Amino acid sequence: MFWTVTLELLNGLSTTFQIFIFTLIFALPLGLLMALGTMNKCKPLRFLLQVLVWVIRGTPLMLQLIIIFYGPGLWLGHNIWNGNEAGRITATVVAFSINYACYFSVIFRGGIEGVPVGQREAGQVLGMTRGQIFFKITLLQMVKRVVPPLSNEIITLVKDTSLARIIAAYELTFAGYSFMKSAGITWPLFYTGVFYLIFVGLLTLLFNYIEKKLSYFR
Amino acid sequence: MAILEVSHIEKHFGNTKVLEDVSFSLEEGKALAIIGSSGSGKTTLLRCLNFLEAPDQGTISVKGEVLFDGSAPHVGREKELRKKRLHFGMVFQSFHLFPQYTALENVMLAEEMLAKEREDYKSNKREIQEEIRKHSLGLLAQMGLAERTGHYPHQLSGGQQQRVAIARALALKPDILCFDEPTSALDPELTGEVLRVIRGLAEQNTTMIIVTHEMAFARDVADQVIFMDGGVIVEAGESRQVIDHPREERTKQFLSRYKCEGNH
């Protein structure tokens, strides 16, 4: 039984992992773009982004997921998501990417603003372009600053993937839960905790490694 | 002919007038010191020359070319602005070295970026980079930092960091090198090594503008001195003349305060 459960949970873990990795792939660059947008001179753009961040941070992620998944079918009369597992995972990734991009954007903005103005000015007087200043001077200093707060959010993301159960995506928690109905046993649900712990443990090691790698400068 | 002509510069921050009718010129190969108390507009003036601030009025010309004209204040596209900036080098009070790069990389960076715009960059990448490397190493050696080229800024003392910053500013061979209180952020025992380097540059006839609180240094190293107060040039002239025998009452007051502080 133990192996049957373990295999089934690993099956759920693969969905969890897909949601996790694709959310990061989309949310990290999107968050950076949003951060640059909130620092743009264009006032309407800034206002728009501020409203978006307010709405997204101000409502539960589960609610956003439900709206993204059921909304098109309910209000547009056309379900854009495939009813299968892939469709559910895609909808989850879309909802999560928007949500996490908002949180990331605030962290990135803090990181960019934390780089002293003098760094940018030093680049300017050396005749560097805005792009060169951002990529060659600001970016790495920002990355160093945002690793600790970002690691918090990314670890939260691991556990937030369990929300996908609400739209019946077969992720880790759902897999554990399903044994309650099918076999009447509860321990698989608690056993999922071990998987999350190992997942987060590995991530923590990765973040420690990155922080160490970036500790060569101050 | 003067290499730098600054005339009738005016600058406001909101309702506060920080520079008023500032005019001066500088001959090639000469050093100009700007003295005055904090808030007198010295730093703002340097920042205007480096296009970190845009003056509200006046003109700035280098080698007869008008770089800034207050009556047509649009400084142009980034490309033109960058080209204009390259006439000036800037050494900041708190160095602003790039912490993620070694001393050598700090000096090389801008030249590398500029080289990428060269048409022959792709075909001669190796040679160009080797050239830049040699040039940068030479500059660091000139600053007495031949042994420190691989160090990161946080591994260097303040005086060493500032000397790297000077090498970095020299890398693009600016027409005029500007110093914004280069020793104000340093412990007293470290100011000497930086002042020595600047003195060396003056002896090689580098055209320089130095904002400083080191009166003895200004008197010995600079050819000309400008005393600023409240955003205006109160007195300007030959350096020994201004510092040893000031004519204006305000200059006398300022300098006497300095002598008192200097006696501590």
What is the secondary structure topology, with strand pairs?
The complex is a heterodimer of chains A (218) and B (264).
Chain A: H1 2-38, H2 43-58, H3 61-75, H4 85-114, H5 117-125, H6 130-160, H7 172-182, H8 187-213
Helix pairs in contact in A: 1-4, 1-7, 2-4, 3-4, 4-6, 5-6, 6-8, 7-8
Chain B: E1 2-13, E2 16-27, E3 31-35, H1 42-49, E4 57-62, E5 65-69, H2 78-85, E6 88-91, H3 103-115, H4 125-142, H5 158-170, E7 176-180, H6 188-203, E8 208-211, H7 215-221, E9 224-229, E10 232-238, H8 239-244, H9 249-262
Parallel strand pairs in B: 3-8, 3-9, 6-7, 7-8
Antiparallel strand pairs in B: 1-2, 1-4, 4-5, 9-10
Helix pairs in contact in B: 3-4, 3-5, 4-5, 5-6
Structure explained in plain terms:
The complex is a heterodimer of chains A (218) and B (264). With 218 residues, chain A is an all-alpha fold. Chain A has a domain at 17-168: MetI-like fold, CATH 1.10.3720. Chain A contains eight helices and no strands. Chain A has helices spanning 2-38, 43-58, 61-75, 85-114, 117-125, 130-160, 172-182, 187-213. The radius of gyration of chain A is 20 Å and the shape is flat. Chain A starts with a helix and ends in a 5-residue tail after the last helix. The mean pLDDT of chain B is 91. In chain B, a hairpin with a 2-residue loop joins strand 1 (2-13) and strand 2 (16-27). Chain B is built from nine helices and ten strands. Chain B has 264 residues and is α/β, with parallel strands linked by helices. Chain A binds chain B through residues 116, 118-119, 121-130, 132, 136-137, 140-141, 144, 216-218, and chain B through 50-52, 78, 82-83, 85-86, 88-90, 92, 94, 96-100, 109-110, 113-114, 152-154, 168-169, 171-172.
